[in-house]
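USER: Fancy drafting a protein?

ASSISTANT:
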Amino acid sequence: MTLDELNELPSDQALAEFARCCGSTRWADAMVGERPFPAPQALFDAAETVADTLVREDWLEAFSHHPRIGDIGTLRAKFAATRRWAETEQSGASSASDDVLHALARENDLYFERFGYIFIVCATGRTAPEMLDILRARLSNDPADELTAAAAEQRKITRLRLEKLLS
């Protein structure tokens, strides 16, 4: 889709497209209201400005729209609208050894128990062992710092998905 096409979409369709990029309803609603965007960079800048206004509940809603890293079954069943994007983003996990995948599952469980939401990482270009190392390092974060780290990863994912939307 072109930027002009995005700008001209009816609000409900634009909302659906933005929701594919970030699962926060508040973020997607605000992005619809920010249109029209004169250039792609204006879109990306608006995405960051709106993200700056999000609170914990908004981030948790956004995180809930992601499958767990390496959980391809959940990816296919629950996230059909973003499946192609997420499969590409998580391609590093698809070729991982069983040991690494089991460790990811175990550490994801520990992460969820500690923070109350799934581990969020911008997986594009990362291998499963790299993601496992990042997960393990972030398990030691305090909850406030971890929310900030997860939100930063969500912002990266959102940016990549906005770029894909315009391609």
